[in-house]
Amino acid sequence: MAMRMKRIAVCFLAVSALLFVACRANGAARGSAKQADRIVIEKSKRTMTLMSGSTVLKTYKVALGGQPVGAKQRVGDHKTPEGLYIVDQKKAASQFHRALHISYPNARDKENARKLGVSPGGDVEIHGLGAKYGWVGAAHRQMDWTDGCIAVTNEEIDEIWPLVAVGTPVEIKP
């Protein structure tokens, strides 16, 4: 009986040591995840790439505004803007699950809208699908459906969320 108890104790210690090493390795890997220092959206390819320096962290397929060709000019035109922006706010309680708010309109957008005599609009975000439509998943990318935002799945925005800080530059290309 004493020998059996020793074997159980040794096995328990061995399993505990393995779990400790595995947990530390997993924690180190999570802690070493690089932050995105730039987001590049290519509308023609329907992609959004998170960058860290010259390293691609991950590329996502996206859905855009319902009228994806051309830059956003006015409120209600269903176009996704083009240009240089920043993530100026993170909205955890967004109607679209989570959202990274983009600093549209920039000075150029405001000047273009002023010349046209229209409001440039605003509230452009990188967002998920929301609780009501989360079940749609990747199928949402079959058509451009937003009012001018960049949409990913709820799981993807959860993955993106910790990698992107307020102040991260966003380049939206045609």
Give me a quick take on this structure.
By secondary structure, this protein is α+β, with helices and mostly antiparallel strands. It has three helices and eight strands. The protein has two domains: 32 residues; 136 residues, L,D-transpeptidase catalytic domain-like.
List key phrases describing it:
174 residues, alpha+beta, L,D-transpeptidase catalytic domain-like, globular
Structure description:
This protein is of the alpha+beta class and 174 residues long. The protein has two domains: 1-32; 38-173, Beta Barrel (L,D-transpeptidase catalytic domain-like), CATH 2.40.440. The protein has three helices and eight strands. The chain has helices at 2-31, 107-116, 154-160, and strands at residues 38-42, 47-52, 55-61, 83-91, 99-102, 125-127, 150-151, 169-173. An eight-stranded mixed beta sheet has the order 3-2-1-8-4-5-6-7. A hairpin with a 7-residue loop joins β4 (83-91) and β5. It is globular and about 45 Å long. It starts with a helix and ends with a strand. Mean pLDDT is 86; it is low at 8-30.
User: What's the overall average pLDDT, rounded?
Assistant: 86
CATH homologous superfamily title of the largest domain: L,D-transpeptidase catalytic domain-like
* Largest sheet strand order: 3-2-1-8-4-5-6-7
| Dominant shape | globular
Protein topology:
Elements: H1 2-31, E1 38-42, E2 47-52, E3 55-61, E4 83-91, E5 99-102, H2 107-116, E6 125-127, E7 150-151, H3 154-160, E8 169-173
Parallel strand pairs: 1-8, 6-7
Antiparallel strand pairs: 1-2, 2-3, 4-5, 4-8, 5-6
